[in-house]
Structures are given as C-alpha cells and as structure tokens.
Design a protein that fits this description.
It is a single chain. This protein has about 425 residues and is α+β, with helices and mostly antiparallel strands. It has 2 domains: about 180 residues, no CATH class; about 240 residues, no CATH class. The chain is built from 15 helices and 11 strands. A 6-stranded mixed barrel has the order 3-4-9-6-8-7. Strand 7 and strand 8 form a beta hairpin. Helix 13 packs antiparallel against helix 14. The protein is elongated. The two termini are about 30 Å apart. Its main location: membrane. Keywords: Cell membrane, Membrane, Transmembrane, Transmembrane helix. It is a multi-pass membrane protein.
C-alpha cells in the first residue's frame, strides 16, 4: 500500500509541478537556514572528548583576599598563579596532571628553504598528550627527566612537520625557536579538535598549537604568556622572578580524576594545600574556596555557547515555521482542488483513513525532497560562515548527526503542516461531487 501511495504522490507532483516546486523550495529555504544555525550550535556545544570528559577537571583556586571580586559568577579566577601551578604539579596526587600556558616563537631552520615565521606554542608537562588523547606518528613525548632539567626539546604537529621537513620522520632534527635550537622528539598526528577546551581563555575555537615544549622552560627561558594574564592587587614587579612569585594568574591547570574516590582525595589535598598557604600569608579568606569542573561543566562555566547563539537557533526555527505556514496555504489549495477526485475515490470504497494516509505520504515526500535540497543550501550557508568568520572555520560544518537530522526535521514539520489539509480533504462528502458529475 505504501508503494501505491508513493506512486500517487509522484503523479500528483507531476500534475502540479509549479506548486510542488514552490513547496519544496519553501521547505528547503527553511531547512537551509535552520540547519546552518543548528549545525554551528551543535558543533559548539558538542562534547569535545566524550570518552573521558567526566574524568578531566579544570582546577581553580580562590587566591584573592576578602572583599575582592572577579568577573566570574562565583568570583573564582579561571587560571592559577605560577607558584600555585608548580606546587600542584609537584604534588603526589593525582597521578596525571598538567600545567600549561600559551606562548610563541619565531620558527626557522638552518636552511634557506623555509622562510622564518611565527609559530604558536604550548608550554606543558608530559601528561598533556595522554590526558587529552593526542597521538603520535613519529617519536613520543619528552621524558620526566627532560621536563625536570628543562631540556631544549620540542614536539611538533603534523602540519608543521610537513612544512619544515616535507612530512619525513624528523625525530632528532633541530628546529630554531627565537635564538635557540630545539631537538624534535615527537610529531603528533592531526588533532581533529573543534573546540580548544583545554584553554578557553585564549579563544575557544582557535586551532591547537603547532609546538609543544616542556613547561620547565618557562622559568629557564623567561617566557612571556601569549594568553590572558590578570591580577587583583597592586604588586611591585621589577623582575621575572617577581612575576613568578606574584599573585598574577596566567597558568592553566588540569587534573585527571578517574573516579569519585580520586576526586574526593584530591579535594582533601586542595583543602590541605590552601590551609598550608594560609599559614604563609596567602589565601586569607576564612572559608577555603576552590573548584573542580569537568570538561562539559568548564564549557558551560565559560559560556562557550552564548545566549546569542541560542537566540539565533530559536529565530531560525521561527523562520522555518513561517515557511511551513506558507506551505500550509499551498497544501490547502492543492488538496481542496482535488476534492472531486477524492469524492469519486470515496464513492468507490476508499476509506477516510486511506485518503488521509495517502495525503500524509505526499507531504512526507515533499519534506524529503525539501530536506535534501535544504542540506545543499545549509552547506552553502556554512561555507559563507567559514568565509566570513575565520573564528568559526572549525565548527561551521555538518557532521553525520546534522546530515541525518535535516530530512527528519523537514519530513516531520511537513507532516505537521499537512495534518489539517489532509484531514479536511478526507472529510469530503462523495454525494456532493457525484451529483455534480
């Protein structure tokens, strides 16, 4: 019976090609606009590391004195001071943790084949690659001994390896960063990261860095941060050593806590750490304050998906509703025009249910066609977003979920719009049209 309904629907399309094309176009435009905004929203809010997002925690400490406030909802600074980051990194718990910051260098080789250029770098500790599931195609991460000795080693991205060494195995080769040479110890594979969740302070949708170096080099090389540095009180900072011991927050810190027991143990440690620092004249608030937020909580805390994005999705669905209102009018005109034909079918024995289902199949087919054309329009819309905003280049795309959702949304909304016209035409009184013949 379904095949028969599909055949009748296709015949109906061919009898009224102009009206049918107008309805398909209206659906396609509504779906194209809706899926453009919905795809961006979906990619922005998607869990960036679902296999372990509940095990990775961003660490915050309340270092400010009483009476001082921050711009966050809970007044907690989003980064740590250098001294706190180092202390937490040197602690016995948890087993995996990482301190890091963003910086950059002038990159070049001892060759005239590659012109010098500026490269972004992440100063980090060895657990970074394991914690955030970064895989290697050549070599591996530097050792803990190299971290402690501030060895001049570097891990580079596949893209940078292609640029500098034509994609060859570059382990052991030298790269010059500013005035110093660094030995390549690892090359990471392409990292399909839509959201740089590990450092939301410096652009949530920026590309990951191409250079990764030991965090211990920060102090040795007196490196400056290319990210946010914030202070809450006046301090006389006359040297780099003063900055290291200041209350300026500029270091990101993450801990991997695999279960509730580990989280509880680390919470106890943080309370003890705050109490110890309080004896030294820091953390003067009566109540110790800290926070452990997992990846998704951290994204929500940092408002990765802003209210503007949510409003845009709502407006796009309202536009789709306007398109469906126009389709409703066209369906009423088309279906009621066929009332004499339906009356004859009813007189020949077709039930109201059969007539109703036939017309719903027809509007579902309209929705399917409109959804497929809408995917094409959505791809054009996402392409225009990528061309207009480099910031959204990694998220203005449709994954398989959105590709499958487009026709489903189109078919569902068309069926909803076609319920009333289909119900109206199936109530046709056969006697009226038989007398008119």
């Amino acid at each position: 019976m379904l095949l028969h309904y599909l055949d009748l629907s296709w015949r109906s399309f061919k009898r009224t090609p102009l009206v049918s094309m107008l309805m398909v176009l209206a659906i396609a435009i509504g779906i194209g606009v809706t899926m453009t905004s919905l795809s961006v929203y979906h990619m922005m809010s998607a869990d960036p590391i679902p296999e372990k997002s509940s095990q990775l925690y961003a660490v915050q400490l309340q270092t400010m004195d009483e009476g001082h406030t921050w711009w966050t909802d809970d007044n907690l600074p989003m980064q740590l001071t250098y001294q706190d980051a180092v202390n937490l990194q040197n602690a016995a718990v948890p087993e995996k943790k990482v301190a890091m910051m963003r910086t950059g260098f002038s990159v070049y080789l001892d060759s005239d084949k590659v012109k010098p250029f500026t490269g972004e770098a992440r100063m980090t500790t060895p657990d970074f690659f394991n914690m955030f599931d970064v895989s290697f195609i050549y070599g591996s991460v530097w050792s803990e001994q190299q971290e402690q000795s501030a060895a001049p080693v570097v891990v580079i991205s596949k893209e940078l390896n292609d640029k500098l060494f034509a994609g060859e195995n570059s382990i052991g080769k030298l790269v010059y960063l500013d005035d110093d040479s660094y030995q390549v110890v690892g090359v990471i594979a392409d990292w399909p990261l839509n959201l740089k969740y590990y450092d939301l302070n410096n652009g949530a949708f920026n590309e990951p860095e191409d250079l990764f170096l030991p965090f211990s080099l920060v102090k040795t090389k007196k490196l400056t941060s290319w990210g946010n540095s914030n202070g809450w009180k006046h301090e006389n900072i006359n040297s780099y050593a003063d900055r290291m011991q200041s209350e300026i927050v500029w270091i990101q810190f993450w801990a991997q806590l695999d279960n509730a027991e580990q989280k509880a143990n680390y919470s106890n440690y943080l309370n003890s750490y705050i109490a110890e620092q309080k004896k030294r004249g820091r953390f003067t608030r009566e109540k110790p304050e800290y926070s452990l937020r997992d990846v998704n909580q951290w994204m929500q805390y940092n408002n990765v998906v802003s209210e503007d994005n949510k409003i845009l999705v709502g407006l796009s669905f309202m536009f789709l509703a306007v398109c469906l209102a126009n389709i409703l009018g066209l369906l009423l005109a088309k279906f009621l025009r066929r009332a004499p034909e339906v009356g004859v079918r009813r007189a020949l024995g077709a039930s109201k249910r059969q007539v109703f289902l036939q017309h719903l199949v027809e509007v579902a087919m309209l929705g399917c066609f409109g959804g497929l054309v809408g995917i094409v329009l959505a791809q054009l819309g996402l392409w225009s977003v990528r061309q207009s905003y480099d910031y959204y280049s990694s998220i203005a795309t449709m994954d398989i979920t959105m590709l499958l959702s487009a026709p489903v949304i189109a078919i569902t909304t068309c069926i909803v719009a076609g319920l009333y016209p289909a119900w109206l035409v199936c109530k046709t009184n056969p006697a009226i049209y038989l007398k008119s013949q």
